[in-house]
Every structure is written in structure tokens, then in C-alpha cells.
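Title: Request for sanity check on CD209 antigen-like protein E isoform X1 prediction

Description:
We are preparing a figure and want to confirm that the structure record we downloaded matches what your pipeline produces today. Could someone re-run it with the sequence below and paste the raw C-alpha cells into this thread? We only need the C-alpha cell string, no images.
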Amino acid sequence: MARFVHNKESEITMDYVNLPDASARTNSLHSCAGGTAAVPGRKLYRLVAVSFGLLCILQVALNISLHLTIDASCTNLTQETDKRELINFDHYFQQGWVYIRPSFYYISYIRKTWHESRADCLQRGADLVIINSKEEQDFTRQFHKNTWIGLTPQKNKDTWKWVDGTPLTKSYWGPEEPNNFEGNTEDCVEIRFFETENSWNDIQCGDQNFWICEKMLAL
């Protein structure tokens, strides 16, 4: 009888040891269930992360491509512009224009009236010279010949303006000029007194003189 009980207890004990604990089984089930759900979640997260990374790389590549395209276009445009300007410069040089920054100057070799002279300048894409500095004034005197410049009076003879409409601010009138000599209407201006800085003289527009055209074109 004692042996039977001992064996029975032994069997019971062994059964208890071999069978998993209820809480352990529950935790095991939760662990398995949780692990099964977490795997797709991690995969989705990784997929989103990889997709976002690829989008960032694509955006950077697109920006670089656009930047290079724009730079190339700007370079081509600049080269084309420079080429056209060089052609224009060569055109002026071949026609005898003189370049003194920032303008080209054309000095005529025949004589015309003031209005005819200005018409010639306009036809050349320029206008009669406008004197804005002492250096430009000295330049107009060096040819030692009577030369038209782009200066005319307003309705009031006391006020003068340049051909571009700007008012005269710095003048280089010769002694006692302008004066409407001998009562004549002298509404045009020439370079006359070459030896002195103050070389301007008012004269009748119908007289014939050489002339200087000016075209501003930075080089």
C-alpha cells in the first residue's frame, strides 16, 4: 500500500513538472500573437523609410539636374550674347567708330547742317554727342574743326537741353557765348574754339559743319 502511494505521488509529481504552467502558456500565446503582428509592422515601417529615402534621393538628383540645366542654358545665353556684342563691336570698328568707355564715337568726314547731321547719327543707331565730362569735352576739341554737338535751346534761350532731353548742367561756352551774333537766331551748338577748354559757340542750325555721333555701348 505504501508503494502504491509513493508511485502515485511520483507520477503526479512528474505530471506536474512536465505540464506547462498556465501563466506560462498564456504568456507564450501572447508572445506568439505579438510576434506575428509585429513582423508586418516592422516591414511596413522599413518600406516607408526606404520609400522616403528614395524620394529624397530622387529630389536631390532632380534639383541637381535642373541646376545643371539652368547653368548650361545661362552659359549658352551668355556666350551667345557675348558673341553678338563682339560682332556689334567689330561692326562699329570697321565703320571707323572710336571707343572711349562707355561710348562709341563716329566723327564725320563731310559737312552737313545740324538737322542733317543728327539724322545721320539716328540712322546709325546713335545721336549727336552729349558731353557729360571734362574728358569728353577734351575729346571733342582734339579734331580742330568746327563740329556739331547735341545741344539746343529750350523755348527760353536761357535754358539749354541735350538731344536726349536732359537739361544742361555743366557748360563749356566760349567767351560771351551764347549770343545770337548780329541778331541771328543761333539755336545750335558747335565746337569752335579748339585751343581752350571753353570751346562752345552757338550758331545757326542751317550752317554746315562736321559732326560727332555717340552711341553708349559698354565693352
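Thanks, this matches our download. Confidence is low (pLDDT under 50) at residues 1-20, 22-38.
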